[in-house]
């Protein structure tokens, strides 16, 4: 009996009885370049509502890593994560509508859609989204042209160390 208790203690201490965390396993597969395996592992997690799995699966589709390149599928997964508050997915959506081809065709005004997603990510403190939103205000793309709004968002990004925003601020004189 004592041997059984000791054996059980050793097994528990080494974690040998614990199954790996499915999300961690999927992320390790991605890091190891096993993208197709990662996609298979992420899919049930994404379907179950895991925002990080949804975001990562979206990235695999966007880049065509382990799955066919498919911007629409990337947007599908990023939207699922973004509506749950996943900030990086909000940023990726903004970029997909602004720079993508397939995503832009799905909405009436892709610039406005991009600005909306950038605004949500920027409001949550995402420096790159703040910078991109500032650029949209400078150009009047999807938003009204406003140097003061551009400067406001650029300052937020620059405060976080965003070099592009720091340069942009010096060129717009704010």
UniProtKB/TrEMBL annotation:
Domain of life of the native organism: Bacteria
InterPro entries: Sel1-like, Sel1_AlgK, TPR-like_helical_dom_sf
Protein name according to UniProt: Sel1 repeat family protein
Organism of provenance: Denitratisoma oestradiolicum
Phylogenetic placement of the source organism: Bacteria, Pseudomonadati, Pseudomonadota, Betaproteobacteria, Nitrosomonadales
């Amino acid at each position: 009996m004592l041997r059984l208790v000791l054996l059980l203690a050793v097994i528990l201490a080494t974690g040998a009885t614990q199954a790996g965390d499915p999300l961690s396993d999927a992320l390790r597969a991605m890091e190891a370049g096993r993208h197709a395996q990662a996609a298979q592992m992420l899919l049930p997690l994404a379907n179950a509502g895991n925002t990080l799995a949804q975001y990562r699966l979206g990235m695999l589709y966007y880049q065509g890593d382990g799955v066919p390149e498919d911007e629409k599928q990337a947007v599908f997964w990023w939207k699922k994560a973004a509506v749950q508050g996943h900030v990086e997915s909000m940023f990726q959506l903004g970029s997909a509508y602004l720079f993508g081809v397939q995503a832009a065709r799905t909405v009436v005004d892709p610039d406005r859609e991009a600005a909306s997603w950038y605004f949500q990510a920027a409001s949550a403190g995402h420096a790159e989204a703040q910078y991109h939103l500032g650029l949209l205000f400078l150009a009047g793309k999807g938003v009204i042209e406003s140097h003061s709004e551009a400067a406001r968002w650029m300052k937020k990004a620059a405060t976080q160390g965003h070099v592009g925003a720091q340069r942009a601020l010096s060129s717009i004189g704010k």
